[in-house]
UniProtKB/TrEMBL annotation:
Protein name: Phosphoribosyltransferase family protein
Domain Phosphoribosyltransferase: 28-163
Keyword line: Glycosyltransferase, Transferase
Organism of derivation: Kitasatospora phosalacinea
Highest rank taxon of the organism: Bacteria
Amino acid sequence: MHFTDRTDAGRRLAGALQSAAPDLRGAVVVALPRGGAPVAAEVAAALGAELDVCVVRKVGVPGQPEVAMGAVGEDGARVVNQQVVDAAGVPPEDYAAVEVRERAELARRAAAYRRGRAPVPLAGRTVLVVDDGVATGSSALAACRIVRARGAARVVLAVPVAPHDWAQRLGGAADAYVAVHAPEGFRSVGEFYRDFRQTTDAEVLAALERPGAPGAPGTAGYEVPLAAGPAELAVPADPLGVVLFAHGSGSGRGSPRNRAVAERLHRAGLATVLFDLLTPGEAEEPWKVFDPGLLGGRLTAATRAVLRHHALAGLPYGWFGASTGAAAALWAAAEPGTAPAAIVSRGGRPDLAAARLSLVAVPTLLVVGGADGEVVELNRRAAAELRGPSALQVVPGAGHLFAEPGALAAVADLAAHWFVRWFPPGEGGDRARH
């Protein structure tokens, strides 16, 4: 079994939890960042549970940092895997040096993720400790000890993948163990993911501030059923308009990048809709992922469906497209009868919609990373072809995924300003006033 990415793994883990541990009322989901955060965000959303983090750092073998010889965590938690230490021949002074470095990084991440907020109270509650997988188990063991010390009445350790004997290895660390996949032939967590790129701090923060999640301030959440899965609506008070996200290959409606941008749009008074254009099975077929006609048709149909929802009635709308999703938005914008007020493309592939670019009169903002040279040139050519108002914004130093510090925030700010600029003030504004 392979997971597409951490979002896919989180959705599957949520289903396994609902089957294996159905009585989870009042539970708290605690993520092990960074990789566990997007997994836990999906679990918390599916269960309607509060989401928090438990910051733990692996203490890696010198020269082999991916091999854990222990772990350190918040509240002074410490785990030493003596078997690994002995096998690697690590002397005490070398272990201590690595531990000091990891505790410094632990403190930095805890401050960055919590932003002055106190941990969610755990006393007397069921706590689901969630990571993207378990290998040696040192980090998971430290996390379980931390949540028990904070008063958890019941601890469930839940991961998408772990070795077949993981529960025996961890003993009484948790009261229950849930894994989607626990194979005998286990070498590493990453081998079970198609996309196992490192999670960024920005993605952890986006998961913790997931739009429409329980406790997210200022928005009302709704779901609309669509052919490829539910559309997630997040509607702030008195919205000025609504932005529908058309993401591309390698992403999904649960993408932390999309959710981070959506959070910024909410602060600008805009509603958002996150959904999938393709089913998980279709997303495995490259010709569908790169077919702008198919994706554009799905986007048009989804737009018509969600705009019938009472929370969005009368609002102007726009499309935020990423990668091949941007091509879908541009393709759909040339269709007779469509009327988006604006389009924003993030790292888009407008060349896939080249046959229709000269027909697009919708105000379009093309945002690309300065380090994404080939895509910058594709977007320059596209900007010259578009018939309506357009602008090209290059974010200096950013790559295709805008994972660099501050890069995604820059995209979100540019998108918010563009949509507010081009959304007609009469429709959303009149609705808000009345």
